[in-house]
Specification:
Bound molecules: adenosine-5'-diphosphate, magnesium ion
CATH class of the largest domain: Alpha Beta
Number of strands: 22
Number of domains: 4
Helix content: 25-40%
CATH architecture of the largest domain: 3-Layer(aba) Sandwich
Strand order of the largest sheet: 6-7-4-3-2-5-8
Length: about 675
C-alpha cells in the first residue's frame, strides 16, 4: 500500500522507534524475529461446521450492518456464508469507515474464534479481508509476529521479507555438527519458519517441535553458552592473589569446632581451597539448602586468606544476619587470636572509626558487615577474598562494587552463597559463568520440620498450642503477614500482632523485631531471643534469611498464602535447627487463589529446597525466577528450559568445541543473535 519495500526505516522515524521497542535494531535482528504463532488461512470452514473455541476462517457476505449503543457503542454486522450459515461479527473499537466497508452484499474472509453469543453465533473483532467470490486461498500458514501497538503484521512481514533477502544467511555451524544433531541449515530453517510451505506440518510448527524450530532453539542455546563461556574465559584471564592452603588457621578452627564437618562440607571446602590457591579470581556459587551449614565453609575460606596474610570480607544482606555472622565467627575466631571487624550502618561512631582503622592498617584481616562494606571509607588494602551471603538478595551492581575493592586493583576471589537453589537447567544456562559447589547434605541430628496448613479461622487453637510448647521450654517465631504494597501497614500489623499475643500469653515473654528498629535495638532483641530470655519472637520478614536460633522449634506464619515459595522455604528453615521436632504452621486465609493453593501444596509436600525450586520454576516460569537476579541477561526467546532440556547439553558441548576450533564462526553466531549486546553478559 504505497510503502516502498526498503531494508530498514530511517533512524529516528516512527517505524524505527517502534522496531526499537521490540529490540529490533537492524535487518539482522528481523531474521530471528520469529512468529509467535501461525494462523491457518488456507482453508475455509463452513460456519455451521466450525468447532467452538478454535480459530477458523470463514467466507461470508454481509447481510446487514449497524452501529448500536447498548450496552455500549459497537459495530455489528450480520453475515451469511454460501452454505447458509449465519454469524454476527462484533467490533467494540472501530473506525466509521469500517461500517461503510461492511456494505450489504460484500464478501469477506473473517478469521477468528466462533462462539455462542446473545444474537447467535458470533466472532468478536475478527480479522477481516475483502475478497471476490472464488478468490484463491493462500497456500501456506500465515505467521503472526510479536509486535507493538502501531506496527502492523503486514509491515513487519514486509520488513522481514526484505531482511531475508538482504542479510546473508550463511551457516556458521560446521556441517559435521549439524549432521550429528540432525539440524537443518540456518537459511532453510528461518525461511521455513517465516514462510511455511503449503505442505508444512502445521502441528509441529505451532507446537514448535519442527526441526526448523529445533535448529533455532539449539542455536539460541549455543549462543548463550558461548557468550557465558567467553565471560568465564575473560575472567580466567584476570589475575588474583593466590592463597594456597597452609592448614594453619583453618586446621585450628576445625580442631575447635564443636562438630565435625559433613562430607559435603569437606568436599566444597576442598573445592574452594583449590580455587583460592590459583592466581585467577575464583567465582564460585555455593548452593546449600537452608541449614546445610554454609557459614562454616565461608569461615574456613576466610581463614585461608588470613593464614596467607591477606584480607577477607563477608557481606550479608541484612543487619540482623550480618550481626549474627559477626557473633558466630567472632566466637570461632577469638580462641584462635584472629581479629574480626564489624562494619554496618548505625554503629557508634568511635567503634566504627576504630574498626575502619584496623582494616586500613591491615592489622585486622577479616571483616563482616552489610552493604556498608561497599562504602568508600571502608578500605581493605589487602582484600583478596569477598564472600557474599544470600547472594540473590544483592544486585549485580553491589557485587561488582565489592569486586572492585580488590587489593592492588586486582579482583578478589568471590564466593557467593545462596540457599535458593537454582535448578540444573537454569544453572547451566543462566549461571554458566560461575563455578558451582553444592552442599547436598544436612548436618546430622536434625529432624525434618513438620508443616501444617491451618485455616486462619483456627488461630485461637494455634495460640494455645504455642503457649503449651513455650511453657515446656521451647521457643517460637510468629511471622507477620507480608504486605507488599505498604511497609507502614506491615509495621502496623506487626505491632498489633505483638500486642495481641502479649495479651493472649501473659505468662510468656514476647518480643518484636522488624525492619524499622535501629540496628542496636534489633541486635538487642535478637540477643535476648538467642539467650532464651524471650519465648516468642514476633517478626516481619526481616528474619527471612539466615537467622539461626537452634532452640526455636515452632514457627507460625500468618497469611502464608501471600508469600512466595522461596520465601516460605527460607522462613521455615529458621526452625528445625536443633534436635527437637520442629513444627511450622502455615495459617492461610480463604478463599485461596489457584497459584496460592499450588504454592501451599508444594511447601506442604516438599522439604527439599531443590525440589521446591523446581516447582517454583514450574509455577512461575523462568523469566520471573531469574528476575530476582536483576541481571540484564537476555532471556531465551525460543528455547524452553523444560521442553528443550535435551538440547542444553549438546549446546554446551558444541559451544566449547566451536569457541576452540572455529572462533570466527562463533563470532558470526554471536553477532547474529546478540548484535552489540554481549557486554551485558560479563557482569
Ligand atoms: P546455612 O547454610 O543456612 O547458612 P548455617 O551455616 O547457619 O546454615 O548452619 C546452620 C547450623 O548448623 C548452625 O548452627 C551451624 O553452626 C550448624 N552446623 C553447621 N555445620 C554443622 C555440622 N557439620 N554439624 C553440626 N552442626 C553444624
Ligand atoms: Mg546462612
Amino acid at each position: 500500500m504505497g510503502v516502498t519495500a526498503r531494508v530498514w526505516p530511517d533512524a529516528g522515524s516512527r517505524q524505527a522507534t517502534l522496531l526499537a521497542r521490540l529490540d529490533l535494531h537492524a535487518p539482522r535482528d528481523l531474521v530471528v524475529h520469529l512468529p509467535l504463532r501461525y494462523e491457518d488461512e488456507t482453508r475455509i470452514t463452513a460456519i455451521d461446521a466450525a468447532p467452538p473455541g478454535e480459530a477458523v476462517q470463514i467466507e461470508a457476505e454481509v447481510v446487514s450492518s449497524e452501529i448500536v449503543f447498548r450496552p455500549r457503542r459497537q459495530l455489528l454486522a450480520r453475515l451469511r456464508d454460501d452454505a447458509g450459515g449465519e454469524i454476527v461479527a462484533r467490533w467494540l473499537n472501530f473506525y466509521p469507515s469500517q461500517q461503510k466497508q461492511l456494505a450489504p452484499g460484500r464478501r469477506f474472509r473473517l478469521f477468528g474464534e466462533l462462539r455462542g453469543g446473545f444474537l447467535g453465533v458470533e466472532m468478536v473483532h475478527p480479522r477481516l479481508r475483502a475478497v471476490e467470490k472464488g478468490a484463491a486461498l493462500p497456500q501456506s500458514l500465515t505467521p503472526v509476529y510479536p509486535t507493538t501497538a502501531g506496527l502492523g503484521q503486514a509491515t513487519l512481514r514486509q520488513l522481514i521479507d526484505a531482511a531475508l533477502a538482504s542479510v546473508p544467511l550463511d551457516d556458521p555451524l560446521p556441517e559435521s555438527l549439524r549432521r550429528r544433531l540432525n539440524l537443518p541449515a540456518f537459511a532453510d530453517a528461518v525461511r521455513y519458519l517465516h514462510h511455511p510451505p503449503p505442505d508444512a506440518d502445521a502441528r509441529a510448527l505451532i507446537e514448535r517441535t519442527h526441526p526448523a524450530w529445533r535448529r533455532v532453539k539449539f542455536e539460541e542455546l549455543l549462543v548463550q553458552q558461548m557468550s557465558l563461556r567467553r565471560a568465564y574465559n575473560a575472567r580466567r584471564a584476570h589475575t588474583a592473589i593466590a592463597l594456597p592452603p597452609r592448614h594453619a588457621l583453618t586446621a585450628a578452627l576445625l580442631d575447635r569446632l564443636p562438630f565435625a564437618l559433613t562430607a559435603a562440607q569437606r568436599r566444597v571446602t576442598e573445592e574452594i581451597a583449590a580455587d583460592l590457591a590459583l592466581p585467577h579470581p575464583m567465582q564460585r556459587l555455593l548452593q546449600g539448602d537452608v541449614g546445610s551449614g554454609k557459614t562454616v565453609v565461608a569461615a574456613l575460606a576466610m581463614l585461608q586468606a588470613a593464614e596467607n596474610g591477606w584480607q577477607a570480607a563477608l557481606m550479608a544482606p541484612t543487619e540482623i544476619l550480618a550481626e549474627q555472622h559477626y557473633r558466630k565467627l567472632g566466637a570461632w575466631l577469638a580462641p584462635l587470636g584472629v581479629d574480626l571487624a564489624w562494619i554496618a550502618g548505625g554503629r557508634k561512631k568511635r567503634e566504627r572509626a576504630a574498626a575502619l582503622d584496623r582494616l586500613r592498617s591491615g592489622e585486622c584481616l577479616l571483616a563482616v558487615g552489610t552493604h556498608a562494606l561497599l562504602e568508600d571509607p571502608v578500605d581493605m588494602p589487602r582484600l583478596a577474598l569477598a564472600v557474599v551471603d544470600e547472594q540473590h538478595r544483592f544486585g549485580v551492581r553491589q557485587r561488582l562494587a565489592l569486586r572492585d575493592k580488590g587489593a592492588h586493583g586486582q579482583r578478589p576471589h568471590m564466593l557467593m552463597m545462596s540457599a535458593t537453589p537454582i535448578p540444573r537447567t537454569l544453572a547451566m544456562t543462566h549461571y554458566a559463568d560461575l563455578d558451582i559447589s553444592v552442599l547436598d547434605e544436612s548436618p546430622p541430628g536434625r529432624s525434618p520440620v513438620q508443616t501444617r496448613l491451618v485455616s486462619a479461622a483456627r488461630r485461637g487453637e494455634i495460640v494455645a498450642r504455642l503457649q503449651a510448647a513455650c511453657l515446656a521450654g521451647r521457643q517460637a517465631y510468629w511471622v507477620c503477614p507480608l504486605i507488599e504494597e505498604s511497609e507502614a501497614l506491615q509495621l502496623k500489623t506487626a505491632l498489633e500482632t505483638w500486642e495481641a499475643l502479649q495479651a493472649a500469653l501473659p505468662e510468656l515473654r514476647v518480643g518484636l523485631i522488624h525492619g524499622r528498629l535501629k540496628a542496636d535495638e534489633k541486635a538487642a532483641v535478637m540477643a535476648a531471643f538467642v539467650a532464651g530470655d524471650l519465648h516468642v519472637l514476633v517478626a516481619t520478614t526481616v528474619i527471612e534469611v539466615g537467622v539461626d536460633v537452634p532452640n526455636a522449634s515452632l514457627m507460625v506464619i500468618e497469611h502464608a498464602e501471600r508469600f512466595g515459595l522461596a520465601q516460605l522455604h527460607q522462613l521455615r528453615g529458621r526452625v528445625g535447627r536443633g534436635a527437637a521436632q520442629s513444627v511450622c504452621v502455615l495459617l492461610f486465609e480463604q478463599p485461596l487463589s489457584e497459584t496460592a493453593r499450588a504454592r501451599l501444596k508444594v511447601i506442604y509436600e516438599q522439604t527439599d529446597g531443590f525440589a521446591i525450586a523446581r516447582e517454583d520454576l514450574r509455577i512461575r516460569g523462568p523469566g520471573e525466577f531469574i528476575g530476582a537476579r536483576q541481571s540484564g541477561l537476555p532471556l531465551l526467546r525460543y528455547a524452553d528450559l523444560e521442553a528443550d532440556a535435551e538440547l542444553i547439553d549438546p549446546a554446551r558441548a558444541a559451544a566449547e568445541e566451536l569457541l576452540a576450533t572455529e572462533p570466527e564462526a562463533a563470532d558470526r553466531l554471536l553477532e547474529r543473535w546478540l548484535g552489540g549486546r554481549e557486554g551485558l553478559l560479563s557482569a
